[in-house]
Amino acid sequence: MQSLGKPSMEAPGGPAGKPEKRKSKNVKRYWEGTPEQEPGSVAPEPKKAKEDGAAGLILDRKRKRNMKKKKKNRLKEKAAAPGKKFISGKVDPFPGPAPIPEEKVKKFERGTKPVLSLVSNRRLKHELTSLESKVELAKKQAARFDMLLPEEAGFLEGDEGEDTCIIQQQDIAEAVDITSGSKYFNLVLNQFGPYRVNYSRNGRHLLLGGRRGHVAAIDWNSKQLTCEMNVMESVNDIRWLHTENMFAVAQKKWLYMYDNQGVELHCVKKFNDVLRMEFLPYHFLLATCSATGFLQYLDISIGKEVAAICTKSGRLDVMAQNPYNAIIHLGHHNGTVSLWSPNLKEPLVKMLCHRGPVRALAVEKTGTYMATAGLDKKLKVYDIRSYKPLHSYLIPGGAGHLSFSQSLLLAAGSGNVVQVYKDIHLKPPKQPYMTHALRQAVHGLQFCPYEDVLGIGHGEGFTSMLVPGAGEANFDAMESNPFQSKKQRQEWEVKALLEKVQPELITLDPLKLGEVDFLTMEQKHQEKVERLGYDPLAKEKFEPKHKTKGRSSTGNLLKRKKKVAHEELRVLIRNSVQEKEEQEAQRKQSEKTAIAVKKSTLDRFIK
What we know:
Helices cover 24% and strands 27% of the residues. Strands 3-30-29-28 form a four-stranded antiparallel sheet. It has a four-stranded antiparallel sheet with strand order 4-5-6-7, with no helix packed on it. It has a four-stranded antiparallel sheet with strand order 8-9-10-11, with no helix packed on it. With 607 residues, it is α+β, with helices and mostly antiparallel strands.
């Protein structure tokens, strides 16, 4: 035995002193398996790993069996009820799209459907069919989205036996919320009045023009003054242009353009003695009527005069535009109202409306109804589609100013009293919907778009009057957005300029521009004759062929010509006889029907 205190004398190789071979460690690469186990770690037991793998295989087999069973059960259920469709394992209780009420769809109908049976061209027929399907889809989508509009228009309703016309503005302002109550206010401007008023298209900005030269632009919701100036001469009318950055002022001599800071941009000396103005937003046209009897159109996008028409009707101080077709309506001293387009030097329509001079004129937004007021103290409502009067109403003092709201309320200014009428196009009113008395006479009226507010310009300044139910409850932000930002306004301005409608397209019926011109066979034939220079369908004169062996002698040729002429004559006579017989049969049939209609129960007693 070796002692513990002495070191061993054996060679490191082994007891015999032979060197022992070193065993090389087989290091496993990452592609050969797991890396070499580090010292101190516990090695996995191979038997246990085999057991885990077997358990996993058993679980996989069970899952597959369950999946097969579920598939068989589904197939059996489908075979038992073949008509049922399964969505996420359940039956849909409301199949198909949600139904839309027909009244909602009719609300968005525009024009009439084209008669496809009259179209002979296959390609055109196919295009019209696809276009009609798109129109139907658009109507349904618009009706479906109309149900989602959150706001509803509400009118003023009184208690039993109470008339709404006696309710004061102070009572309405106290009863409504703070935001709506703040929209009733008075601006006391008694130095430079009376005032003309004009709201911008989105109803956000207000323009005031005093007779003695005072001009002011206001953001009336926030009561912030945009600009204010005195032009040092009389102001006849004011009007916003395409945006709230520019406005036009009809001064004593000429027409001026200003920006929203009050800086003068243009002085148009061709437009002199202007009394009234109207701006056509889709055509970028400013229409003016003057004391000399001229109706002029100015294209503000290029700064050129489009048309100058002498109406030959004297001083023009009553003017309104039809928003539906951009036709200008003018009232004259002889009681007539004339309709004008920049394309013609003569009026399109001339209507006799009053026995005396016309004092005021207004057209509602759909272009269906027109209200006129004359010196005979009558207020008349006309249907422009048939040019016939619907109702006539006598106002004690006579109306000097008229204005339609977006919900067809009509405001009439008579002296220092403003009366608002409801449903005046349906029946003659027995009493006004609302009234409001002022200290001085009314000089200008306009309803604010998308707001229940009526702006009144008078001798002492401006009054904002609350009229519940006057404005459109839901606005289209793509058309006019009261809350648009600076970037949105700039983009809208560029888009509107690109989509500008040319003045040549202003007509009484704008729907005719989109109709198909059906050419008749006679028109097609006439065009072909003009293009070719001769009639290809014209029957050529008969010329007999030349024959040999003496058959083309003069006598034979004459005989053949007479034979052909005789046959043609027989055909003409036969056709004329047939036409006469048909006409006679139709006449007899009409006589029989007339006699049958005239018969009565007492005819049996006639001998």
